[in-house]
Amino acid sequence: MTTPSAYELDAWKNIQKHRSPMAAQAGHAVADNVVKGAAKMGQAAKKGLDRVPGASSTLAKGLGGLSKGAGFVGEKAKKVGDQVPEGAVNWGKEAVASTQKSLAKAARVGLSPEAVVKRHQKNGHAVKNLLDVRSLDLELVDAVKPRGRQWIYPALGAVSGGAAGLAITGGEAAVTLSAGVAAAPTAGVIAGSIAADAAAVLTMSSRAVGEIALSYGYDPEEPVEKIFSMSVINAGSAISSASKFAAFRDISKLTQAMVRGGTWKTLNQSIISRVTAQFAKLFGVRFTRQSLGKLIPAVGIVVGGAFNWSNLESVVDTAEVAYRRRFLLEKYPHLAEDDSSEFTEPAPTEASDESKDQTISVLEELAEAGGPDLLQEHDSKSV
């Protein structure tokens, strides 16, 4: 039995202790509180921004002043949210799905297995192809990984979220709190802005996960990797207990099948396309429901940026840990005997409004599209 190095054992211990980052939790809480009309929304947003690396302290302090009228703003926001018809949610769903092919192409630009191989070779590592990366010690993999992903993608997401908030509030960044619903945009503007924002976030999420996959020796263009990538994005963007459980269960089942070397002959391009399109639709619904905090005049811009930052940060963080865990389990299957991470037993989250989230199971969609039904496999152990 191959023994992990001290570096790899330390990494495994960290995986067991891993939980979602504080900034992501705070950002999601902000969006939820805004829609509920919580009187302390401004203070919650300030705390969320304070936990985001590099966030502007000026913006954070500004929210503190706005918190004086937070009760009023929250109530008005709820009314605006109630005015957004279900049709707007469905419109956003179809808009994101209709552009999923273009999104996929955009997400793949610049991602090259050859570039990863060259980086390793430049550092003197015995790597001839991408698959060889998986046989390296984790310390060597970490030595050549690109830096800055933990903030680059969240920062880009924040820009998109802020732009969406600006478009939704009609550019009235300095509108008085008394403007209330009178300053609210039309449902069409709301739907269009949120759909464009959702498409941008999904593209950035896909690219971030693809880049991380390559770092650990996995080609994001492989059919099974596309399924795994969607499962990771699903887990990173989920906020409710039910949606997180479904997402982490998918990652667990997929990892189990991959560690055991399962065959994927049934995963043809047609099946992958159907699953990808359906996931884009469901992601669009989830994103729209979570984004109603962007409706509030003035603070919608800040909340939109903070929410998108937290969303991308959570996806990047989840991807790093999911691929790291899978990398180690494929090399050292016996580690599964000591696996108590959130990927095997999702920790219960604080109570959250299930209606503001969309429960998605990529593996359920895979089975419905004609692929293998991994959720029906009954095993005594979960990997």
UniProtKB/TrEMBL annotation:
Source organism phylogeny: Bacteria, Bacillati, Actinomycetota, Actinomycetes, Micrococcales
Full protein name: Serine/arginine repetitive matrix protein 2
InterPro entries per the UniProt record, alphabetical: EcsC (IPR024787)
Residues covered by region (Disordered): 338-360
PANTHER family: PROTEIN ECSC
